Amino acid sequence: MTGNHRDTTITRRRALAVTGGTVAAGGLAVAGYQSAFADTATEATASASASATSTSTSASCMTLMSSVTEGPYYLDGALVRKDITEGKSGVPLTLRLTVVDATDGCTPVPGAAVEIWHCDAWGYYSGYTTANPGGSAPAESEDGSTSNDNTYLRGYQIANANGVVKFETIIPGWYTPRTCHIHLKVHTGGEKEDGTYEGGKVNYTGQLFFDDDIAEAIFALEPYSKHTGSYTKLADDMVYDGGGASSGLLTLEPVHKKDPSKGYKGFLTLGVDPDAENTGAGGGGGGGGTPPSGAPSGAPTGAPPSDAPSASASS
Question: Is the Cβ–Cβ distance between 225 and 146 less than 8 Å?
Answer without folding.
Answer: no
